[in-house]
Amino acid sequence: AAGVIQSPRHLIKEKRETATLKCYPIPRHDTVYWYQQGPGQDPQFLISFYEKMQSDKGSIPDRFSAQQFSDYHSELNMSSLELGDSALYFCASSSLWQRGNTIYFGEGSWLTVV
Amino acid sequence: GDSVTQMEGPVTLSEEAFLTINCTYTATGYPSLFWYVQYPGEGLQLLLKATKADDKGSNKGFEATYRKETTSFHLEKGSVQVSDSAVYFCALMIGSNFGNEKLTFGTGTRLTIIP
User: Taking CB atoms and an 8 Å cutoff, what residues of chain B touch A30?
Assistant: First the structure.
């Protein structure tokens, strides 16, 4: 079965640069989530979208923004990168109408800021 | 706010030992409960879930029962294997509106199984 696809899998950026992560949800899923997992930490919720509208916001820095497009893929834009932004970024998706609304995660994008 | 308290790790066991990883939660509503597993260098995989009190989730020999009276969702396996070595996250989800059913995770428990 198709899973959540994230790209790139690995990314190295310098401080103050900008990075963009992409996420392609499972087909027919209507909700996309972004999580950040620092080294040795639990995943922290950043932001979510339902039917292309922002539905909830967590601990997402003002330097970060995200959107969901008409084809349901989502992008997380991170500007003025800091060393502390180095983390594993997960995208996840779910469908309100399928399988008890379980949230399925992608394999993550590793961002290293140097 | 909603929170998950998970057994501190790391946990090291011998192969074929019995495993319990404790998880308790605090929630204002009626959450769904999940266990996710993260193998080294990989993403989060759903291991099992339970959506209401007394439900038992099970998968790959792992089990967890949703206990409302003790607000717990402990993960158990009767005989662990080396391939079970991973980090295990307990999580809850509450949400009544479309798109805000986000997961709140525990801190994770690193499990290492020794042959």
Answer: 98-99
